[in-house]
């Protein structure tokens, strides 16, 4: 079946340092699934951080970037300089059609702690 | 901003008891979903619905029922709660099929079955 494998937490980074959270995917029903990063801040529900639906394209939001690489089937999340407010759990997800609806497959999540 | 509200925010239940988790959305979305998250797992889809009065099984439906009495409301029912159902449950909605569209999540319900 479909799967998403990502860096699992905890990930601890000092403020102003760079960050990379790895994500690789495997899709069965279509060649180029849609790819997402969701984030869950403490006490909140998950929210969309960024999405990319075209292979080769890059998505960006709040200083984070992720590039859809179909050759390596990867969608790594990067940020050049993290802030304390980036402390959260980050989920990579893959979306593809399924029957009458569609499906999002999530990775296990990576808990990021940014220390001052 | 779209809103999805879950209740309760946390619950302690006894093994064998009945548990109902409720979800209400004000987004006017057709699609609604129930996910669970356990330590060491990503979010896993339990049930979903794309229209009122109809529900569909997700990846892990065993032990759960769902009800969609209206476009706004989607409930998850555990008829006989078990220890293995201790988890955090998330409700979500989307305007179109979720593979193409962003999901709007509730804050989650932490369920502990003792």
Largest sheet of chain B: 7 strands, mixed
- What is the C-alpha radius of gyration of chain A, as a whole number of Å? 14 Å
Q: Calculate Rg of chain B over CA atoms.
A: 13 Å
Give the mean pLDDT of chain B. 92
The helix/strand class of chain A is: mainly beta
Q: Note poorly predicted spans of chain B.
A: none
Query: Pairing-aware structural class of the strands and helices of chain B?
Result: mainly beta
Give the % helix of chain A.
under 10%
Number of strands of chain A: 12
Explain how this protein is built.
The complex is a heterodimer of chains A (116) and B (114). Chain A has 116 residues and is an all-beta fold. Chain A has no helices and twelve strands. The mean pLDDT of chain A is 90. Chain B is mainly beta and 114 residues long. Chain B is built from no helices and eleven strands. In chain B, the strands form two sheets. In chain B, strands 2, 4, 5, 6, 9, 10 and 11 form a seven-stranded mixed β-sheet that branches. The mean pLDDT of chain B is 92. The interface between A and B is medium-sized, with 29 and 27 residues.
Task: Using brief descriptors, characterize the structure shown.
heterodimer, A: 116 residues, mainly beta, six-stranded mixed beta sheet, 0% helix, 54% strand, globular, B: 114 residues, seven-stranded mixed beta sheet
Summarize, please.
Chain A is mainly beta. Chain A has strands at residues 3-6, 11-14, 19-21, 23-26, 34-40, 46-52, 58-61, 64-67, 77-79, 88-98, 101-106, 110-115.
Compile the SSE list and pairings:
The complex is a heterodimer of chains A (116) and B (114).
Chain A: E1 3-6, E2 11-14, E3 19-21, E4 23-26, E5 34-40, E6 46-52, E7 58-61, E8 64-67, E9 77-79, E10 88-98, E11 101-106, E12 110-115
Parallel strand pairs in A: 2-12
Antiparallel strand pairs in A: 1-4, 3-9, 5-6, 5-10, 7-8, 8-9, 10-11, 10-12
Chain B: E1 4-7, E2 10-13, E3 19-25, E4 31-37, E5 44-51, E6 54-57, E7 65-67, E8 75-78, E9 87-94, E10 104-105, E11 109-113
Parallel strand pairs in B: 2-11
Antiparallel strand pairs in B: 1-3, 3-8, 4-5, 4-9, 5-6, 7-8, 9-10, 9-11
